[in-house]
Amino acid sequence: MNNYAAAPEENRSKAEIMGRKRQEKALREFKHVLKDLIFLLRSASGMQTVYMYWINRSRKQFVLETKSTELDNVIFKDRLAFENHFLNDYKDISEAATLEIGRELDPSLLKHYYDRVPVRYVTMLPFVNNGETVAITVLEARDQHSADEQGDVIYSYIEALRNVLNTYLEISDLYEQQNEWVDYEKCLDRLNVRCHRAELVKRLLNILQQFLPDGGVSFVTQGMGSWCNVMNSDEARHPLPVGMTMEKRSLASEAAENGSTEFAIHFNNSPKRLSPREQQTEGATMAIPLLMNDRRQGVVLAHDKNPLTFKESTKHKLMNLVRVAGLQIMGNDPGIDIDEPVFANKFGAFLPDFWKKTVDSELVNIREQQSKFHSWFGLITLSNLPKLRTKMRIDQLDQMQRDLVRTFNPSQYGYTGILGFHSDYIYSFFIQNKDPGAVDKWIAALRKNFLNSFELDNGMHIETDITVGSVKLQDELQDSYQVLTKAKSALSGAMKSGNNEVIQ
Predict the structure, then answer these.
(1) d(CA 430, CA 428)
(2) Least C-beta-crowded within 10 Å: which of 114, 262, 326, 338?
């Protein structure tokens, strides 16, 4: 048999169609065998009517599989609610049972007969799978045929039914597994693309999201002098706030420190994925380090409310997809310096593509009323920058930028957010918080650092203030380009007015 996962791309769709046809053929043959089994059972047992119902417990229905009868006043319905069938009282039996109609079973309950009920005895044969009754075969006769008298026939039927069902399930599982790995190959192909590293990370998160029906994916990396969440998958459920800082003893910190994947099922909100401040820590989480030549450049947090989602095969796929993404990033940029954080510039500010992806995703969430946070984007700089640039050497200016990025870090003041690079000495910021006044409080706390002279790490003191222009994300904004345009306008207005702050 050809391996579907190894099929060339141009032949893969044909292979999938052939696989579906084989699966459909297996189902048809399975149903034909059941029909023949029921006919043989009726013939061998001398019964007048024999039929088989599956028990659909999720929908509370009996579903007719097949029937065989020598009578002419019988009409079966394909589906019946539990309460509309006499089998409702016997759907949990685990051994054969025989009832006499009129004495143990009201004949009016046998609704598949019309005019009259021509049989006197009903024998029920349960089919038990994994400790649960999943089907019942019913034998109806004019004369009494006890289960003991028909022991050999009944035993042969039950064994044949079990063997046929197990064979069908094995074939179905095989086809499902083949299709599952075909889908996985497609996921790998989607990572085989030349693009910016931030775009590849976003693509990776959205691919992993497909494996987590009731969860989400976040990307944690280095910047602003710390590790924090910089991006979530587009359809994440209960996402971590962008900018939430990684703290010790969290699952993410263990993966970052050890360089190996960590998996945990959460009990009583423990262990935390990223921080003690996160909410709704339940289900299970995988923390997968993003390695580049053994350098830890990030951690992918994949979580789902249902721990059973993380089958061993799923874990393997998630880890391998992250590994391939790391290799692809290096392959796309052979000159990348993996000894330094690759998702931030040399001053610690995150690359612009990160906040652009995040802003675009958040605007979609806002329009779809899926966001649980208030979000702002803006630009921040020093108010007397021209004067400082003329007084300081290049190395001093570089040191100043590193110090400013750490100082502007919103987490220093208890707010979740990230700081990005916009241009020299001008930084973009994205703040996300449930507090509608978060950005005003963050700016007020920042200004306190500049009330007196600001001391750099090299001991140099500078006299300055900050100038800020920001915009709150709302549904009328179209994309990150429009948001940036409004933030630039706000910053320009703040500089011209001398107010040092404009919020649009």
Answers:
(1) 7
(2) 114
The runs of H, that is alpha helices, within 46-129 are: none
CATH of the domain at 163: 3.30.450.40
Residue 50 pLDDT class (50, 70, 90 cuts): very high
**Is 358 in the same domain as 486?**
yes
What single letter denotes the amino acid at residue 93? I
Residue reference for tokens 């915009």: 471
In a domain, 16, yes or no: no
Rounded CA-CA distance 337/342 in Å is: 7
The answer on 413 and 294 residing in a single domain is no
Q: Check whether residue 162 and residue 235 sit in a common domain.
A: no
Number of domains in the chain: 3
Q: Read off φ and ψ for residue 17, nearest 5 degrees.
A: -65, -40
Q: What angle do CA 309, 311, 315 make, to 5 degrees?
A: 100
Structural domain span for residue 82: 33-172
For 19-28, 210-219, 233-242, 408-417, which range has the lowest pLDDT when averaged over its residues?
Answer: 19-28
Give the SS3 label for residue 240: coil
From residue 238, alpha-carbon distances to 12, 261, 303, 373 in Å are 35, 22, 10, 11
152 and 234 fall within a common domain: no
- The pLDDT score that the predictor gives to residue 59 is 83
Q: Minimal CA–CA distance to 226: which of 194, 271, 192, 256? A: 256
Smallest CA-to-CA distance from 98 within 63, 148, 54, 49 is with 148
Question: Do the strands 461-462 and 454-455 form a parallel or antiparallel pair, or are they unpaired?
Answer: antiparallel
Residue 46, number of CB atoms within 10 A of its CB: 14
Task: Return the DSSP state at 98.
Answer: E
498: Cα within 13 Å, side-chain hemisphere: 0
Q: Is the pTM above the cut of 0.70?
A: no
> 157 and 213 share a domain?
no
Gap between the Cα atoms of 56 and 54, Å rounded: 6
d(CA 94, CA 89): 13
Q: What is the pLDDT of residues 445-482, one digit of tens each?
A: 999 988 888 888 888 888 888 999 999 999 999 999 99
Element (H, E) at 486: helix 480-497
Residue 251 pLDDT greater than 50, yes or no: yes
Enumerate the β-bridge partners of residue 113: 74
Query: What SS3 state is found at 22?
Result: helix
Give me the DSSP letters along 402-469.
Answer: HHHHHHH-GGGGT--EEEEEEETTEEEEEEEESSTTHHHHHHHHHHHTTSSPEEPTTS-EE---EEEE
